[in-house]
Specification:
The complex is a heterodimer.
Chain A: H1 2-21, E1 23-32, H2 33-44, E2 47-49, E3 59-68, H3 69-77, E4 82-87, E5 90-95, E6 103-112, E7 123-127, E8 131-134, E9 140-146, E10 148-155, E11 162-169, E12 173-174, E13 177-179, H4 195-202, E14 208-212, H5 213-218, H6 228-232, E15 238-239, E16 249-250, E17 258-262, E18 265-266, E19 271-272, E20 277-278, E21 285-291, E22 305-311, E23 320-325, E24 329-339, E25 343-352, H7 354-368, E26 372-392, E27 395-415, E28 421-444, E29 447-472, E30 475-504, E31 507-531, E32 534-539, E33 545-561, E34 564-577, E35 580-593, E36 599-610, E37 612-614, E38 627-629, E39 637-650, E40 654-671, E41 688-704, E42 709-723, E43 733-734, E44 741-750, E45 755-764, E46 768-769, E47 774-776, E48 788-789, E49 797-798, E50 802-812, E51 816-823, E52 830-838, E53 851-858, E54 862-870
Chain B: H1 2-16, E1 23-27, E2 37-44, E3 50-55, E4 57-58, E5 75-80, E6 83-94, E7 106-111, E8 121-128, E9 132-139, E10 146-159, E11 172-185, E12 193-201, E13 212-215, E14 219-220, H2 233-238, E15 246-248, E16 256-270, H3 277-281, E17 283-291, H4 293-306, H5 309-315, E18 335-346, H6 347-357
Parallel strand pairs in B: 2-18
Antiparallel strand pairs in B: 2-3, 3-7, 5-6, 5-8, 6-7, 8-9, 10-11, 11-16, 12-15, 12-17, 13-16, 14-16, 17-18
Helix pairs in contact in B: 4-5
């Protein structure tokens, strides 16, 4: 057999060689091709094979004298669309593909008219090619379009749609454009061009959305403090956690499994005041990208979701600003040009009022207690600042700074009879700093890149001291002193570069690399003790950790056919700590198939990895909730998720979506049973147990994006479970925020240019809690005596169905606007806990108040008002 | 002090959960629960074992003192160092009185004849036809003696004529301030746990007929860092920490260490004007208990579940449940062991030391 094949190959090869070497002579001037080939067949002895209609109406001219057959054929067919192929003694003639028209790249930036702020997510459509893309976070777009006369349309929510017609595209060119704010907004109409609708139908991403500042400000929230996280809580698949808190539990994940980013830089502590408010000042934001199911290759490091908060650059044209006075905080923001058309600034600051409110309480208390003086102050503050400089339309640098801190100061002085006084002081500070600088540049018309260097830090410093001070002859003497200082922090130094490359109209590629140097100090405590003449200083030996993380990613968005779109990517990461190196490859893939223009079906798979996690003891944010890396024998947390979705738009006004998912989570870290029995200075890793989790569910959403009335109805169905070897006796248990059913209805109505009303209703299955029902007898060991509840299955009880409605009225005035909001408008006191207590009704027989279980119902209707003055 | 400790949590609660108005609604959760056996015993070297065998009860069943939770039909076996030593017999004991003891004067229990010794591994197994089985195991610790007690910085303000102390003609009151250093030497082996107990002896109410009373004596344990080794900085700022005297040898393993206890403005009342022996006999009994791990963990868990932040938040649904520690197989009860070392500090010595300084 092998021999036969070898002989055939040699024969075929000799035929080709002989054919190529054959020389012919022929002469023809504009003769019918069929006739010329007939003559050529005779003179060369070759068979010419071609479809009968190929040579119809084709004339050729040729003059050859003893020239190779190939050269003769080339001459003959030079000016025709006919090609040939010599196979042995046969010459096959065929019609060549028509030449493709040349393609050119059209690129540029889309900005807001006036302020020249970059607009991300603007849909750019080129007709008649029907090519469509969206601007990136820097407002950059790039399209590869066939040469010819085209028209371009730019549309974005809140801005007038702009169309440029009769663009003659002969070569690659650049078109920058500024979109004016849509005047119809003032007339009560939300404009067409909602990028979330485009994302639903056009993109291959599942579960992604963009939230504008207007969306955030229109969402009614507690105390009227508009908040990006509380806006996202209204999305299907997002559990809010404990009522009133800025918690996020996405698709059954944990609260530390969300990557919050400020201009693409991670922010570790995203809460103020135990989680009542998020760290993001709405006035400093431009928009927010949120991903909960399929993740771009660029992102990795968290299991559940990615929230990229983009801050304002500031106007290049004129100065703007606002001052907001609310019940709980005040905020100021200002932005404008430093060098018109070239350099802009943006500054926003916010500070809470609570310390002002507690001042009179302390004063009253102190006036009533001559021997005891108390000062108490709590406040939070955050500052956002950014400077942007444009070298040219294609090149820009920026520097951004964020500072957010909570602080609690308590000082209590007890005056003793003996001229001694005990002074008890606590000073607690915790918060973030982010500083970053970047340069972004459109290197070519289809390559955009950004280089960023950043420092991000979360730190807490908790100090408590007790001292006894006496006075002798006017001199103060400190007799006893006991000071404890505890610190923890995570510092990251980051260097990264990200690129968008549009090699083809149907293909967009993103790629990049990043390096992060992490430094962790899990809580380290130092105690200074002076007791009479004895002095001692103790410091625990909690080690600090340093880790190097390297990331490399590439991903693409490919539209091979009109109705098919593919999104793919790989994110490779290395995390090196304590001479141990973890590698991880996170593949991502998703597709979109459009059975019709207004339909899309999507499916996707994503793998994510998480190397750092937060030790959380409660559902509120405490300053002791430290971020720690995987160490020792711990493995990085990973998740695999498959998603399926279907999307439909109706009249460009309504978008319907249904998304289902199944998620497997591995190496999840959680406090083990009885972890609290270990001393606080014990290595934190000893207190944890690693386990698994699964979650599955379906998210439905109907949204209306156009008209005087806009809003959405969302429903989500969720199952979330966990299993850990050292928790709940190794048995599986439901996750705390396994809210089986959740419904959100959100409506905004622009009644007139002056009045707007927004309302949201939330109804969901209650959170799960652990409710011990049995008690055991007190063994009378220890200084105090309490109830002894018997351990039960974790999260064994579901709180009653939760529901509430929030309403917000906005009155636009000449110089600003008033916001009047009602949280929990119909005052449904939802149960947040169950406590063991005694009945309010006495048992007539025994005379006792019998023990009962009671639902603790909190948070009534909370009205709030704020005024924002705009200038 | 309590105000400070609770101020943060109270204000946080006000704002976190508004606290502007809240309400409680009585209900019965639809969760089935089955009673199990509970075993409680404090095994002390040199004293017979007494076991309180009860059943657990549903909180809403009734007040525990209104219902009979004692289990008397069980078979209780005592194993010592792996060998079955005896079966404990049901019986009663007269309850030691002290103000915070909520139990009735006569309590049902199971008693045995075996006198435990330091180092014994004690295992108790109980089997009830109605409530099933339970067991617990504990090793009786070795005695760790108190080396000595020192008094420092004693001072007093006396009411009345004290110039002839200790012979006084009528009742004499002293406001005492002093620092007490209790020296002991930890064993070389790690994993030792201790509890310090202070009792005035003989005990008397203010209105009693004792010749001397240490009255309103609230020892300040906050100066001793070992007593708060279970307290984080945040807890020390915002949670109640007083009263706990449990500690481990993590930071003092094998060392001689003085425990520091401060008394501020304690009132010592000396009544007997003639009897010189009265005040000499009256003293502060310092007990250093070398306790087993279950004892230690149980006390730590009491603080965590009731006074620490997590326990407080857990009570209002903001954190996962935390539980008192149990070493019994059913999760109900504590079978703990300790060996005490005692030393009495005569109060007269303290008063005289204070007078000398004055």
């Amino acid at each position: 057999m092998r021999r036969k094949i070898t002989i055939s190959f040699i024969l075929a090869l000799s035929a080709v060689i002989s054919a190529s070497a054959q020389k012919v002579s022929i002469k023809a001037v504009n003769e019918p091709a069929a006739r010329v080939f007939s003559r050529l067949m005779n003179s060369s002895g070759k068979n010419f094979i071609y479809p009968s209609d190929l040579l119809r109406s084709v004339n050729v001219s040729v003059s050859a004298n003893n020239e190779p057959l190939e050269r003769v054929l080339d001459k003959m067919l030079e000016k025709t669309d006919i090609g040939y192929k010599i196979k042995g003694n046969n010459v096959v003639l065929f019609r060549k593909d028509p030449p493709k028209p040349s393609r050119h790249t059209l690129s540029g930036f889309v900005r807001e008219e006036g302020s020249e702020e970059a607009l991300s997510g603007v849909t750019v459509t080129a007709l008649p090619a029907g090519v469509r893309t969206a601007t990136n976070t820097q407002g950059f777009y790039s399209l590869s379009i066939p040469a010819g006369t085209i028209s371009l349309t730019f549309s974005a929510v809140g801005f007038e749609t702009k169309e440029i017609e009769d663009i003659v595209l002969k070569s690659s060119r650049k078109i920058d454009i500024s979109l004016p704010e849509d005047s119809r907004m003032l007339e009560g109409v939300t404009v067409i061009g909602n990028q979330n609708r485009d994302r639903a139908i056009e993109s291959a991403e599942i579960g992604s959305m963009n939230v504008s500042r207007a969306n955030i400000k229109n969402t009614p929230v507690i105390f009227g403090e508009s908040d990006v996280i509380k806006t996202l809580q209204l999305e299907p698949g997002v559990s809010a956690g404990v009522e009133g808190m800025a918690g996020m539990y996405v698709h059954g994940g944990g609260s530390d499994e969300n990557m919050y980013m400020l201009d693409n830089i991670p922010l570790y502590q995203v809460n103020h005041f135990g989680g009542l408010f998020s760290a993001f000042n709405t006035e400093a934001l431009r928009n927010v990208d949120f991903y909960k199911s399929s993740f771009p290759a660029k992102y990795d490091g968290r299991l559940s979701s990615y929230i990229d908060v983009n801050t304002k650059d500031g106007s290049m044209d004129s100065h703007h600003g606002g001052v907001k006075i609310g019940l709980t905080s005040a905020a100021v923001n200002v932005d404008g040009p430093i060098w018109k058309e070239h350099t802009s600034y943006s500054f926003a600051a916010r500070r809470s009022w609570y310390d002002v409110l507690t001042l009179p309480i302390c004063a009253i208390f102190n006036s009533m207690s001559p021997d005891e003086k108390t000062t108490f102050g709590y406040a939070f503050t955050d500052i956002n600042a950014k400077i942007t400089h444009r070298f040219s339309d294609r090149s820009r640098i920026y520097a951004m700074f964020y500072y957010g801190e909570d602080y609690l100061n308590v000082k209590q002085t007890y005056l003793m009879a003996s001229k001694e006084k005990d002074i008890d002081k606590s000073n607690l500070r915790w918060g973030n700093i982010v500083a970053s600088a970047g340069w972004n540049h459109a290197f070519t018309s289809n390559l955009f890149g950004e280089v960023t260097g950043a420092f991000t830090r979360y730190a807490s410093r908790l100090m408590h001291s007790e001292e006894t001070e006496s006075e002798e002859n006017g001199t103060k003497i400190r007799t006893d002193y006991d000071k404890t200082l505890s610190r923890n922090y995570i510092h990251d130094w980051i260097l990264k570069c990200d690129f968008d490359w549009h090699p083809h109209a149907t293909h967009k590629i993103t790629f990049g690399a990043g390096y992060t140097h992490h430094s962790f100090l899990p809580s380290r405590t130092r105690r200074e003790l002076t007791n009479g003449e004895i002095s001692a200083t103790m410091e625990d030996h909690v080690p600090s950790y340093h880790a190097n993380e390297f990331n490399l990613y590439a991903g693409g968005d490919w539209n091979p056919f009109r109705r098919l779109r593919l999104n793919y990517g790989l994110h490779y990461s290395i995390f090196s700590i304590e001479s141990k190196t973890h590698h991880n490859l996170s593949p991502r893939a998703s597709f979109r198939f459009q059975p019709a223009d207004n339909w899309a079906i999507k499916g996707g798979y994503s793998h994510t990895v998480q190397y750092v996690h937060q030790l959380l003891q409660s559902s509120i944010s405490l300053p002791t909730d430290q971020w720690v890396p995987v160490v020792g024998n711990q493995k990085p947390q990973t998740a695999d998720k498959i998603s399926l979705g279907a999307y439909w738009t109706l009249n460009n006004r309504y978008t319907f979506s249904i998304e289902g998912y199944y998620k497997w989570m591995h190496n999840l870290l959680e406090y083990a049973d009885d972890y609290y029995l270990l001393p606080p200075d014990q290595d934190w890793a000893d207190k944890l147990t690693a386990g698994r989790g699964t979650s599955k569910g379906v998210d439905f959403k109907i949204s209306k994006d156009y008209g005087k009335i806009t809003g959405h109805i969302a429903y989500s169905l969720l199952w979330a479970n966990r299993i850990y070897p050292d928790k709940n006796g190794g048995r599986p248990f439901p996750a705390r925020f396994d809210n089986r059913h959740k419904i959100n209805v959100m409506v905004n109505w622009k009644i007139s240019p002056k009045w707007e009303i927004g309302a949201s209703w939330t109804g969901m299955s209650g959170n799960r809690i652990t409710l011990p029902t049995q008690l055991w007898q007190d063994p009378m060991i220890g200084p105090w005596h309490y109830d002894m509840p018997l351990r039960v299955e974790e999260n064994n009880y579901r709180l009653p169905f939760y529901h509430r409605m929030d309403i917000n009225f906005r009155r636009n005035t000449r110089h600003g606007y008033w916001d009047f909001s009602l949280y929990n408008a119909y005052c449904n006191l939802n149960a947040i806990a169950v406590v063991r207590d005694y009945s309010d009704i006495r048992n007539e027989e025994t005379g006792d108040y019998p023990p009962v279980f009671k639902k603790l119902r909190l948070i009534p209707i909370i009205p709030s008002v704020s005024y924002t003055w705009l200038f | 002090m309590a105000l400070l400790k609770n101020l943060f949590l109270s204000l946080t609660s006000i704002f976190l959960m508004t606290g502007l108005s809240s309400c409680y609604q009585e209900f019965e959760p639809d969760i089935p629960s089955v009673p199990v056996l509970c075993m409680n015993s404090e095994i002390t070297a040199g004293e017979p074992i007494i076991l309180f065998l009860t059943r657990t009860w549903r909180w809403s069943e009734e007040n525990q003192f209104s219902i009979d939770v004692d289990v008397t039909d069980a078979e209780v076996k005592l194993f010592v160092n792996g060998d079955l030593r005896e079966t404990l017999d049901p019986g009663t004991i007269i309850n030691e009185y002290y103000p915070s003891n909520p139990y009735p004067e006569i309590r049902k229990c199971f008693k045995g004849d075996y006198i435990p010794r330091s180092g014994d591994m004690i295992r108790i197994e109980a089997s009830s036809p109605q409530y099933g089985d339970a067991w617990a195991e504990v090793r009786v610790p070795e005695e760790v003696p108190i080396d000595r007690i020192e008094i420092q910085d004693a001072s007093c303000e006396a009411w009345g004529d004290t110039s002839t102390f200790p012979v006084v003609e009528e009742e004499c009151n002293f406001n005492l301030r002093f620092r007490m250093l209790v020296y002991f030497t930890d064993r070389d082996t790690p994993g030792d746990y201790y509890d310090l107990a202070l009792n005035a002896s003989p005990y008397s109410d203010y209105d009693g007929e004792a010749d001397a009373i240490l009255y309103n004596a609230w020892p300040d344990f906050s100066g001793e860092s070992l007593f708060s080794e279970h307290v984080s900085v945040l807890e020390s700022a915002v949670a109640e920490t007083s009263g706990y005297t449990i500690f481990s040898d993590r930071s003092i393993n094998g060392k001689t260490y003085p425990l520091r206890i401060k008394f501020t403005d304690s009132m010592f009342i000396y009544k007997n004007p003639l009897d010189l022996d009265g005040p000499k006999e009256y003293g502060l009994v310092v007990s250093l208990r070398h306790v087993d791990e279950a004892y230690y963990k149980h006390v730590i868990s009491l603080w965590e579940t009731n006074d620490a932040i997590v326990g407080s938040l857990s009570g209002v649904g903001l954190a996962n449940a935390v539980y008192p520690y149990s070493n019994v197989s059913t999760g109900a009860g504590v079978v703990a062991a300790y060996t005490s070392s005692k030393m009495t500090l005569p109060m007269a010595d303290v008063v005289m030391a204070a007078q000398k300084k004055n």
